[in-house]
Amino acid sequence: MNNEVILKTVGLTKQYGTIKAVDHISFAVQSGQIVGLLGPNGAGKSTTINMILGILQPTDGTVEIFGKNMVAHRSLISRGINFAAVYAHMPPNLTVRQNLRVFGLLYGVKKLNYRIAELLDEFDLEKFASSKAGILSSGELSRLSLAKAVINRPRLLLLDEPTASLDPSISLQIREKIKEYVDKTQTAVLWTSHNMREIEAVCDHVLFLSHGHILLSGDPRSLPSDHGKRDLEELFIAVAREPLSLKET
User: Fold this and answer.
1) pLDDT at 45
2) 62 strand-pairing partners
3) What is the separation, in whole angstroms, between the first and last Cα of the chain?
4) DSSP string covering the chain, please?
5) Nearest by Cα to 44 from 65, 13, 70
6) What is the mean pLDDT of residues 81-104?
7) Residue 1's pLDDT band (boundaries 50, 70, 90)?
8) Are 51 and 61 in contact, with CB atoms under 8 Å apart?
């Protein structure tokens, strides 16, 4: 992993009326680094992801990707980022190959036929290439979603609970695919999840959000003991139930 900063947020804020869903958060993700964005429901994780993607405009603060401001350079930046989530459904009436072709065209992928063939092989989707997405199993759909998410060879990959509702075996396969891809390409990844064992297995660094603030950050393998907790799951529960007692000084 090199030290190139791919994603940087400074004072990132999103306010709805008097409620601050995200409150002046600052962090960075480097090339080849997988950073976990954690917190209970309503902590501000998805809002943060949507501001990074440019779907939501910040009330205050900035998002820089590849050293450029997201608001000013969204069209240029968007070609180098991508997104996957278990709830972001692929068009069900299109085949696996057709789905990849549509998204490849949207991202302006060169040598698209070759790239689709690569992805069908890499994500074990060749035998489903002519199957409609609507009849795929949850695991097959997750592999298709990941294939879509890397079709443009993104330098920044945003994963919003990519293994939610999947059984442990399929979740492991998906994690392994993502780890292999990051090791090979040095893509920067921001990953949200409620599965703390998953986060411990894949993430180099974690950020705990509480009420829109970054409450804690650090190595997922040492952070729990730093705060008197046995593991990341126990720390997650403490963040959800008693955030003020854990606030860094």
Assistant:
1) 92
2) 10
3) 30
4) ----EEEEEEEEEEEETTEEEEEEEEEEEETT-EEEEE-STTSSHHHHHHHHHTSS--SEEEEEETTEETTTSHHHHHTTEEEEETTS---TTSBHHHHHHHHHHHTT-SSHHHHHHHHHHHTT-GGGTTSBGGGS-HHHHHHHHHHHHTTT--SEEEEESTTTT--HHHHHHHHHHHHHHHHHH--EEEEE-S-HHHHHHH-SEEEEEETTEEEEEE-TTTHHHHTT-SSHHHHHHHHHH-GGGG---
5) 13
6) 92
7) low
8) no
Note the Cα 137 to chain centre separation in Å: 22
pLDDT-derived band at 3 (thresholds 50, 70, 90) equals confident
What would the mean pLDDT of 88-108 be, rounded to a whole number? 94
* Confidence grade of residue 245 (pLDDT, cut at 50, 70, 90): low
Q: Taking Cα atoms as reference points, which of 248, 240, 244 lies closest to residue 39?
A: 240
Which token pair is 117?
């063939």
CA 247/CA 231 separation, integer angstroms: 17
Would you state the structure tokens that stand for residue 171, as one six-digit string?
A: 């979740």
pTM assigned to the model? 0.91
Residues pairing with 156 in the sheet: 81, 188
Burial 184-195, CB ≥16 within 10 A → b, else e: eebbbbbbbbeb
Return the amino acid letter for 202.
Answer: V
How deeply is 7 buried, as exposed, middle or buried, from its count of CB atoms within 10 A (0-12, 13-18, 19+)? buried
Q: How many residues does the chain have?
A: 249
